[in-house]
């Protein structure tokens, strides 16, 4: 099985001298191409830091990260930014959008940096993604004129514009009501079914239960994993229960 990401004994520390602390304490993790994984753990255990390390957003103090065969630890800032822009998509709890641009322009803006493509091609791709996630009619709306769920769909379209190999999500449904959250998770399940790898950081057992492997972190280390069959729309209650039992077991 091809690995999209290999993290090998990653160390990430913050602070200086006596204050220095390893937030990631030799974490090794592999994500298969096309896999859907979640990272859970208590607040402060290092989940977001791990996501930023694996995506090359933050440099690491030890170990290495290989993304799609490329050693990120040896890549320049420009190379890293190219890799993130062309091969990775990011979705956060609160999508950051530019207030003076409408929905369509917010989606296409990051792709405009790619001079190999023209505006018509980029807009065409954006419109087909908007249709796919159910916001086709909103392209001219101001970002203040849409719901939280619609804004998150906008963020997903933006993340998918360059057909990334992996989507990283940090609490991507954290700001949504349960119906919207479920709809957003349906979209991510579809994206994953099309072959895109997905890695989520989440506190939510219902979100984690949609994935096929959950890594549990504590004090900067992955302490255990839970594997589930790929989600096929069935047995959601049973999956959530398995996740919850594991969370209780390790005190998350
Ligand atoms: N830039 C930084 N400088 C100093 N300390 C940091 C920095 N970023 C994170 N930390 C610390 O590293 C630890 C892990 O943070 P991280 O955000 O990875 O945790 P988390 O598991 O994602 O937490 P949460 O569930 O609350 O989001 C925390 O103690 C945090 O305060």
TrEMBL record:
Alphabetically ordered keywords of this record: ATP-binding, Nucleotide-binding, Transport
Keyword set includes Nucleotide-binding: yes
CC terms in the record's Gene Ontology section: membrane protein complex
InterPro entries noted in UniProt: AAA+_ATPase (IPR003593), ABC_transporter-like_ATP-bd (IPR003439), MacB-like_ATP-bd (IPR017911), P-loop_NTPase (IPR027417)
Ranges of residues in domain ABC transporter: 5-244
Molecular functions (GO terms): ATP binding; ATP hydrolysis activity; transmembrane transporter activity
Family: Belongs to the ABC transporter superfamily.
Name assigned to this protein: ABC transporter ATP-binding protein
Native source organism of the sequence: Cohnella herbarum
Lineage: Bacteria, Bacillati, Bacillota, Bacilli, Bacillales
